[in-house]
Protein backbone atom coordinates (compact mmCIF):
# COMPACT_ATOMS: atom_id res chain seq x y z
CA UNK A 1 0.00 0.00 0.00
CA UNK A 2 2.09 2.86 -1.25
CA UNK A 3 0.47 6.21 -0.52
CA UNK A 4 1.47 9.58 -1.87
CA UNK A 5 2.10 12.22 0.78
CA UNK A 6 2.40 15.94 0.12
CA UNK A 7 4.47 17.33 2.98
CA UNK A 8 3.91 21.07 3.50
CA UNK A 9 7.04 22.35 5.24
CA UNK A 10 10.43 20.68 4.87
CA UNK A 11 12.39 21.43 8.01
CA UNK A 12 14.11 19.01 10.38
CA UNK A 13 10.85 17.60 11.70
CA UNK A 14 9.64 17.02 8.16
CA UNK A 15 12.93 15.33 7.31
CA UNK A 16 12.58 12.76 10.09
CA UNK A 17 8.98 12.20 9.02
CA UNK A 18 10.09 11.54 5.43
CA UNK A 19 12.75 9.11 6.64
CA UNK A 20 10.10 7.24 8.64
CA UNK A 21 7.86 7.16 5.54
CA UNK A 22 10.68 5.99 3.27
CA UNK A 23 11.42 3.14 5.64
CA UNK A 24 8.00 1.67 5.04
CA UNK A 25 7.82 2.35 1.35
CA UNK A 26 5.70 5.48 1.14
CA UNK A 27 6.11 8.23 -1.45
CA UNK A 28 6.67 11.82 -0.31
CA UNK A 29 6.76 15.15 -2.16
CA UNK A 30 8.34 17.77 0.10
CA UNK A 31 7.32 21.42 -0.17
CA UNK A 32 8.87 24.61 1.19
CA UNK A 33 9.64 28.19 0.23
CA UNK A 34 13.26 27.44 -0.63
CA UNK A 35 15.19 24.74 -2.46
CA UNK A 36 17.24 22.03 -0.79
CA UNK A 37 15.33 22.28 2.49
CA UNK A 38 16.12 19.39 4.89
CA UNK A 39 13.10 17.18 4.07
CA UNK A 40 13.54 17.69 0.31
CA UNK A 41 16.95 16.02 0.56
CA UNK A 42 15.33 12.68 1.42
CA UNK A 43 11.99 12.91 -0.45
CA UNK A 44 10.98 11.54 -3.87
CA UNK A 45 10.24 14.98 -5.23
CA UNK A 46 9.92 18.58 -4.15
CA UNK A 47 8.09 21.83 -4.87
CA UNK A 48 9.11 25.37 -3.99
CA UNK A 49 6.13 27.66 -3.41
CA UNK A 50 4.83 30.28 -1.01
CA UNK A 51 2.46 28.13 1.06
CA UNK A 52 0.42 31.18 2.11
CA UNK A 53 -0.54 31.56 -1.56
CA UNK A 54 -3.79 29.61 -2.00
CA UNK A 55 -3.54 29.44 -5.80
CA UNK A 56 0.01 28.06 -5.62
CA UNK A 57 -1.15 25.44 -3.12
CA UNK A 58 -4.11 24.47 -5.33
CA UNK A 59 -1.75 24.05 -8.27
CA UNK A 60 0.58 21.57 -6.58
CA UNK A 61 -2.30 19.63 -5.03
CA UNK A 62 -3.86 19.30 -8.51
CA UNK A 63 -0.50 18.33 -10.00
CA UNK A 64 0.42 15.62 -7.48
CA UNK A 65 -3.05 14.39 -6.42
CA UNK A 66 -1.76 13.17 -3.05
CA UNK A 67 -3.58 10.72 -0.78
CA UNK A 68 -2.43 12.74 2.24
CA UNK A 69 -1.50 16.34 2.90
CA UNK A 70 0.76 16.54 5.93
CA UNK A 71 1.41 20.07 7.22
CA UNK A 72 4.70 20.54 9.03
CA UNK A 73 4.34 24.27 9.76
CA UNK A 74 1.57 26.73 10.65
CA UNK A 75 2.12 29.39 7.98
CA UNK A 76 -0.02 27.81 5.26
CA UNK A 77 -3.24 29.02 3.60
CA UNK A 78 -5.06 26.41 5.69
CA UNK A 79 -8.53 27.63 4.67
CA UNK A 80 -7.90 25.71 1.42
CA UNK A 81 -7.64 22.47 3.40
CA UNK A 82 -11.42 22.19 3.79
CA UNK A 83 -11.69 22.06 0.01
CA UNK A 84 -9.00 19.40 -0.30
CA UNK A 85 -10.89 17.30 2.23
CA UNK A 86 -14.01 17.61 0.08
CA UNK A 87 -11.94 16.40 -2.88
CA UNK A 88 -11.26 13.20 -0.94
CA UNK A 89 -7.72 14.02 0.19
CA UNK A 90 -6.95 13.34 3.84
CA UNK A 91 -5.53 16.44 5.49
CA UNK A 92 -3.49 15.44 8.53
CA UNK A 93 -4.71 15.22 11.15
CA UNK A 94 -7.75 17.15 9.83
CA UNK A 95 -8.43 20.40 7.98
CA UNK A 96 -9.99 21.75 11.16
CA UNK A 97 -6.94 20.91 13.30
CA UNK A 98 -4.54 22.62 10.89
CA UNK A 99 -6.82 25.60 10.39
CA UNK A 100 -7.58 26.11 14.09
CA UNK A 101 -3.92 26.05 15.07
CA UNK A 102 -2.73 28.37 12.31
CA UNK A 103 -3.86 31.24 14.48
CA UNK A 104 -3.75 31.33 18.29
CA UNK A 105 -7.31 32.65 18.54
CA UNK A 106 -9.34 29.72 17.23
CA UNK A 107 -7.53 27.11 19.30
CA UNK A 108 -7.57 29.21 22.49
CA UNK A 109 -11.28 30.00 22.24
CA UNK A 110 -11.99 26.33 21.53
CA UNK A 111 -9.97 25.24 24.58
CA UNK A 112 -11.29 27.85 27.01
CA UNK A 113 -14.83 28.57 25.86
CA UNK A 114 -16.01 25.36 24.20
CA UNK A 115 -14.07 22.78 26.19
CA UNK A 116 -13.66 24.67 29.51
CA UNK A 117 -10.00 23.73 29.86
CA UNK A 118 -7.93 25.69 32.37
CA UNK A 119 -5.91 28.30 30.46
CA UNK A 120 -4.26 31.56 31.45
CA UNK A 121 -6.80 34.39 31.55
CA UNK A 122 -6.58 36.19 28.20
CA UNK A 123 -7.81 39.03 25.99
CA UNK A 124 -7.20 40.11 22.39
CA UNK A 125 -6.09 43.50 21.09
CA UNK A 126 -5.72 45.07 17.64
CA UNK A 127 -4.11 48.39 18.64
CA UNK A 128 -1.88 49.87 21.34
CA UNK A 129 -4.99 51.41 22.96
CA UNK A 130 -6.82 48.09 23.05
CA UNK A 131 -3.71 46.48 24.46
CA UNK A 132 -3.70 49.03 27.29
CA UNK A 133 -7.25 48.07 28.17
CA UNK A 134 -6.57 44.33 27.80
CA UNK A 135 -3.56 44.53 30.10
CA UNK A 136 -5.66 46.32 32.70
CA UNK A 137 -8.13 43.41 32.53
CA UNK A 138 -5.75 40.44 32.72
CA UNK A 139 -3.29 42.16 35.08
CA UNK A 140 0.49 42.57 35.19
CA UNK A 141 2.68 40.55 34.65
CA UNK A 142 1.32 39.26 31.36
CA UNK A 143 2.58 37.87 28.08
CA UNK A 144 1.84 39.44 24.69
CA UNK A 145 1.99 37.29 21.53
CA UNK A 146 1.01 38.02 17.94
CA UNK A 147 -1.89 35.75 16.95
CA UNK A 148 0.11 34.68 13.91
CA UNK A 149 3.64 33.82 14.98
CA UNK A 150 5.71 30.95 16.25
CA UNK A 151 9.05 30.31 17.93
CA UNK A 152 8.46 33.24 20.26
CA UNK A 153 8.55 35.83 17.47
CA UNK A 154 7.08 39.15 18.59
CA UNK A 155 6.42 37.72 22.05
CA UNK A 156 7.25 39.69 25.20
CA UNK A 157 6.37 39.86 28.87
CA UNK A 158 4.89 43.03 30.32
CA UNK A 159 6.25 43.64 33.81
CA UNK A 160 5.25 47.29 34.27
CA UNK A 161 2.85 49.67 32.51
CA UNK A 162 5.80 51.26 30.76
CA UNK A 163 6.31 48.01 28.81
CA UNK A 164 2.92 48.11 27.07
CA UNK A 165 3.87 50.44 24.20
CA UNK A 166 7.10 48.48 23.58
CA UNK A 167 5.25 45.17 23.65
CA UNK A 168 2.81 46.38 21.00
CA UNK A 169 5.60 47.56 18.69
CA UNK A 170 7.55 44.35 19.16
CA UNK A 171 4.45 42.26 18.40
CA UNK A 172 3.78 44.23 15.20
CA UNK A 173 7.35 43.55 14.04
CA UNK A 174 7.16 39.83 14.86
CA UNK A 175 3.74 39.20 13.38
CA UNK A 176 3.07 37.34 10.16
CA UNK A 177 -0.13 37.91 8.25
CA UNK A 178 -1.91 41.04 7.07
CA UNK A 179 -3.81 42.15 10.17
CA UNK A 180 -1.93 42.52 13.42
CA UNK A 181 -3.74 41.20 16.42
CA UNK A 182 -2.27 39.99 19.69
CA UNK A 183 -3.32 37.79 22.56
CA UNK A 184 -2.49 39.00 26.06
CA UNK A 185 -2.22 36.22 28.60
CA UNK A 186 -1.86 36.45 32.35
CA UNK A 187 1.63 35.25 33.25
CA UNK A 188 1.45 31.71 34.63
CA UNK A 189 3.93 31.19 37.41
CA UNK A 190 4.52 27.58 36.48
CA UNK A 191 6.89 25.12 38.14
CA UNK A 192 7.58 23.33 34.87
CA UNK A 193 6.21 22.92 31.39
CA UNK A 194 5.65 19.74 29.43
CA UNK A 195 4.69 18.48 26.01
CA UNK A 196 2.30 15.56 26.02
CA UNK A 197 2.60 13.75 22.70
CA UNK A 198 -0.89 12.43 22.01
CA UNK A 199 -1.72 10.01 19.21
CA UNK A 200 -5.25 9.76 17.85
CA UNK A 201 -5.99 6.67 15.78
CA UNK A 202 -8.54 5.54 13.22
CA UNK A 203 -8.28 1.95 14.43
CA UNK A 204 -7.57 2.23 18.10
CA UNK A 205 -7.70 4.29 21.26
CA UNK A 206 -5.95 7.61 21.81
CA UNK A 207 -2.45 6.99 23.16
CA UNK A 208 -0.29 9.20 25.36
CA UNK A 209 3.49 9.20 25.31
CA UNK A 210 5.45 9.61 28.54
CA UNK A 211 5.62 13.35 29.30
CA UNK A 212 8.43 15.46 27.85
CA UNK A 213 9.93 18.30 29.90
CA UNK A 214 11.59 21.26 28.22
CA UNK A 215 13.30 24.57 28.80
CA UNK A 216 12.62 27.59 26.59
CA UNK A 217 14.84 30.54 25.77
CA UNK A 218 14.20 33.31 23.21
CA UNK A 219 10.98 31.49 22.29
CA UNK A 220 12.64 28.24 21.29
CA UNK A 221 13.32 25.09 23.21
CA UNK A 222 16.91 24.52 24.34
CA UNK A 223 16.73 21.10 25.97
CA UNK A 224 13.98 18.53 26.26
CA UNK A 225 13.86 15.35 28.29
CA UNK A 226 11.72 12.27 28.72
CA UNK A 227 10.24 11.17 31.02
CA UNK A 228 9.51 14.47 32.77
CA UNK A 229 8.76 14.25 36.45
CA UNK A 230 4.98 14.71 36.66
CA UNK A 231 2.66 13.64 39.47
CA UNK A 232 -0.05 11.10 38.68
CA UNK A 233 -2.71 13.74 39.38
CA UNK A 234 -1.17 16.29 36.98
CA UNK A 235 -0.69 13.58 34.36
CA UNK A 236 -4.35 12.59 34.60
CA UNK A 237 -5.42 16.23 34.23
CA UNK A 238 -3.14 16.77 31.22
CA UNK A 239 -4.29 13.56 29.53
CA UNK A 240 -7.92 14.46 30.05
CA UNK A 241 -7.38 17.89 28.46
CA UNK A 242 -5.31 16.46 25.59
CA UNK A 243 -8.03 13.91 24.88
CA UNK A 244 -10.73 16.59 24.79
CA UNK A 245 -8.88 19.01 22.56
CA UNK A 246 -7.64 16.39 20.09
CA UNK A 247 -11.11 14.86 19.89
CA UNK A 248 -12.59 18.28 19.12
CA UNK A 249 -10.06 18.85 16.33
CA UNK A 250 -10.59 15.41 14.80
CA UNK A 251 -8.57 13.11 12.57
CA UNK A 252 -5.71 10.72 13.18
CA UNK A 253 -2.14 11.68 13.89
CA UNK A 254 0.27 12.78 16.57
CA UNK A 255 -0.26 16.07 18.41
CA UNK A 256 2.19 17.91 20.69
CA UNK A 257 0.04 19.31 23.48
CA UNK A 258 1.78 21.92 25.64
CA UNK A 259 0.96 22.38 29.33
CA UNK A 260 2.17 24.50 32.24
CA UNK A 261 2.32 22.70 35.60
CA UNK A 262 1.58 25.13 38.43
CA UNK A 263 0.72 24.82 42.15
CA UNK A 264 -2.94 25.50 41.37
CA UNK A 265 -3.10 22.80 38.68
CA UNK A 266 -2.39 22.13 35.01
CA UNK A 267 -2.86 24.82 32.36
CA UNK A 268 -3.41 24.05 28.69
CA UNK A 269 -1.12 26.34 26.66
CA UNK A 270 -1.24 25.44 22.97
CA UNK A 271 -0.76 22.51 20.64
CA UNK A 272 0.81 21.41 17.38
CA UNK A 273 -1.29 18.99 15.29
CA UNK A 274 1.97 17.34 14.21
CA UNK A 275 5.32 16.24 15.68
CA UNK A 276 6.67 18.77 18.15
CA UNK A 277 10.22 20.09 18.26
CA UNK A 278 10.65 19.07 21.92
CA UNK A 279 9.64 15.57 20.79
CA UNK A 280 12.97 15.21 19.00
CA UNK A 281 14.08 13.62 22.27
CA UNK A 282 12.30 10.49 21.01
CA UNK A 283 15.07 10.24 18.37
CA UNK A 284 17.26 9.13 21.28
CA UNK A 285 15.32 5.85 21.34
CA UNK A 286 13.33 6.74 24.43
CA UNK A 287 10.18 5.08 23.04
CA UNK A 288 9.34 1.96 21.03
CA UNK A 289 8.40 4.32 18.17
CA UNK A 290 9.68 7.88 17.80
CA UNK A 291 7.18 10.71 17.31
CA UNK A 292 7.59 10.69 13.51
CA UNK A 293 6.93 6.96 13.25
CA UNK A 294 3.86 7.37 15.46
CA UNK A 295 2.54 10.23 13.30
CA UNK A 296 3.04 8.16 10.14
CA UNK A 297 1.44 5.00 11.50
CA UNK A 298 -1.58 6.91 12.77
CA UNK A 299 -1.97 8.62 9.38
CA UNK A 300 -1.76 5.33 7.49
CA UNK A 301 -4.33 3.78 9.87
CA UNK A 302 -1.79 1.20 11.03
CA UNK A 303 -2.86 0.29 14.56
CA UNK A 304 -0.40 1.21 17.27
CA UNK A 305 -0.82 -1.32 20.05
CA UNK A 306 1.03 0.69 22.67
CA UNK A 307 3.65 3.34 23.28
CA UNK A 308 6.31 2.21 25.71
CA UNK A 309 9.17 4.01 27.43
CA UNK A 310 12.39 2.20 26.52
CA UNK A 311 15.02 4.56 27.91
CA UNK A 312 15.38 7.91 29.62
CA UNK A 313 16.75 10.57 27.30
CA UNK A 314 17.45 14.20 26.53
CA UNK A 315 17.97 16.39 23.49
CA UNK A 316 19.90 19.67 23.35
CA UNK A 317 19.83 21.98 20.36
CA UNK A 318 22.87 22.85 18.26
CA UNK A 319 22.53 26.49 17.21
CA UNK A 320 24.34 28.59 14.62
CA UNK A 321 26.06 31.75 15.78
CA UNK A 322 26.17 33.70 12.53
CA UNK A 323 25.01 34.11 8.95
CA UNK A 324 26.38 31.76 6.33
CA UNK A 325 25.48 30.42 2.87
CA UNK A 326 27.71 27.44 3.47
CA UNK A 327 27.69 26.46 7.11
CA UNK A 328 30.15 23.75 8.12
CA UNK A 329 30.57 21.89 11.38
CA UNK A 330 33.52 21.12 13.61
CA UNK A 331 33.66 18.89 16.67
CA UNK A 332 31.82 15.97 15.09
CA UNK A 333 34.61 13.53 16.04
CA UNK A 334 34.36 14.67 19.65
CA UNK A 335 30.59 14.19 19.98
CA UNK A 336 30.79 10.89 18.08
CA UNK A 337 33.23 9.53 20.66
CA UNK A 338 30.86 10.03 23.60
CA UNK A 339 29.05 7.00 25.04
CA UNK A 340 25.22 6.81 24.96
CA UNK A 341 25.24 9.85 22.67
CA UNK A 342 24.03 10.49 19.14
CA UNK A 343 23.38 13.60 17.06
CA UNK A 344 21.57 14.92 14.01
CA UNK A 345 22.74 17.66 11.67
CA UNK A 346 19.76 18.82 9.65
CA UNK A 347 21.53 19.84 6.43
CA UNK A 348 20.08 23.36 6.35
CA UNK A 349 21.71 25.15 3.43
CA UNK A 350 22.11 28.48 5.27
CA UNK A 351 22.59 29.63 8.84
CA UNK A 352 21.70 32.73 10.83
CA UNK A 353 22.21 33.55 14.51
CA UNK A 354 20.34 31.10 16.75
CA UNK A 355 19.05 29.02 13.83
CA UNK A 356 18.67 25.39 14.92
CA UNK A 357 21.13 23.37 12.85
CA UNK A 358 21.21 20.09 14.72
CA UNK A 359 20.47 18.31 17.94
CA UNK A 360 22.48 16.24 20.43
CA UNK A 361 20.75 13.14 21.81
CA UNK A 362 21.70 11.27 24.98
CA UNK A 363 19.96 8.29 26.53
CA UNK A 364 20.43 5.97 29.48
CA UNK A 365 18.59 3.23 31.32
CA UNK A 366 15.19 4.06 32.81
CA UNK A 367 15.62 5.43 36.30
CA UNK A 368 18.78 7.42 35.57
CA UNK A 369 18.23 10.93 36.99
CA UNK A 370 17.06 12.90 33.99
CA UNK A 371 18.97 16.05 35.11
CA UNK A 372 22.20 14.12 34.58
CA UNK A 373 21.16 13.15 31.07
CA UNK A 374 20.16 16.73 30.26
CA UNK A 375 23.54 17.95 31.49
CA UNK A 376 25.30 15.42 29.27
CA UNK A 377 23.24 16.46 26.26
CA UNK A 378 24.19 20.13 26.79
CA UNK A 379 27.86 19.24 27.03
CA UNK A 380 27.55 17.12 23.89
CA UNK A 381 25.77 19.87 21.92
CA UNK A 382 28.44 22.39 22.95
CA UNK A 383 31.13 20.22 21.32
CA UNK A 384 29.76 21.04 17.89
CA UNK A 385 30.56 24.39 16.36
CA UNK A 386 28.70 25.77 13.38
CA UNK A 387 31.24 27.63 11.28
CA UNK A 388 30.41 30.61 9.12
N1 LIG B 1 1.03 32.86 29.82
C1 LIG B 1 2.31 32.49 29.98
N2 LIG B 1 2.87 32.51 31.20
C2 LIG B 1 4.17 32.17 31.38
N3 LIG B 1 4.98 31.77 30.39
C3 LIG B 1 4.49 31.73 29.14
C4 LIG B 1 3.12 32.08 28.87
N4 LIG B 1 2.91 31.94 27.57
C5 LIG B 1 4.08 31.51 27.02
N5 LIG B 1 5.03 31.38 27.97
C6 LIG B 1 6.41 30.91 27.75
O1 LIG B 1 6.78 31.17 26.40
C7 LIG B 1 6.98 29.95 25.67
C8 LIG B 1 6.49 30.08 24.24
O2 LIG B 1 5.12 30.37 24.24
P1 LIG B 1 4.14 29.69 23.20
O3 LIG B 1 4.34 28.23 23.20
O4 LIG B 1 2.77 30.18 23.45
O5 LIG B 1 4.67 30.40 21.88
P2 LIG B 1 5.20 29.89 20.48
O6 LIG B 1 5.81 31.08 19.85
O7 LIG B 1 4.05 29.25 19.80
O8 LIG B 1 6.28 28.84 20.72
P3 LIG B 1 6.51 27.53 19.85
O9 LIG B 1 5.85 27.71 18.52
O10 LIG B 1 8.00 27.48 19.77
O11 LIG B 1 5.92 26.44 20.67
C9 LIG B 1 6.23 28.89 26.48
O12 LIG B 1 6.73 27.61 26.22
C10 LIG B 1 6.49 29.39 27.89
O13 LIG B 1 7.80 29.06 28.32
MG1 LIG C 1 4.83 26.67 22.23
TrEMBL record:
Pathway assignment reads: Purine metabolism; IMP biosynthesis via de novo pathway; N(2)-formyl-N(1)-(5-phospho-D-ribosyl)glycinamide from N(1)-(5-phospho-D-ribosyl)glycinamide (formate route): step 1/1
What UniProt keywords apply to this chain's record, in alphabetical order?
ATP-binding, Ligase, Magnesium, Metal-binding, Nucleotide-binding, Purine biosynthesis, Transferase
**What's one Pfam family here?**
ATP-grasp
Q: Which residues bind N(1)-(5-phospho-beta-D-ribosyl)glycinamide?
A: 12-13, 72, 277, 348, 355-356
The record's annotation in PROSITE patterns points to: ATP_GRASP
Q: Which family does it belong to?
A: Belongs to the PurK/PurT family.
Which protein is depicted? Answer: Formate-dependent phosphoribosylglycinamide formyltransferase
Give the organism, scientific name. Answer: Flavobacterium album
Amino acid sequence: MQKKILLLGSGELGKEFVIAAQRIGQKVIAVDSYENAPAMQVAHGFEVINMLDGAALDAIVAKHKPDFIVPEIEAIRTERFYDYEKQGITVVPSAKAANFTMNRKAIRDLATKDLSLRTANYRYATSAEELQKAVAEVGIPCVVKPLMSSSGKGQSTIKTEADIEKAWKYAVEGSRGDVVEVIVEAFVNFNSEITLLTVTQNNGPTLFCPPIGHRQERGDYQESWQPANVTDAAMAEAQDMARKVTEALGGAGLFGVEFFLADEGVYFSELSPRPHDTGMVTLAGTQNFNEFELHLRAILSLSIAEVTLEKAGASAVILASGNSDNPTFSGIEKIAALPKTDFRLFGKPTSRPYRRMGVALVSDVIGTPVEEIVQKSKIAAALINVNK
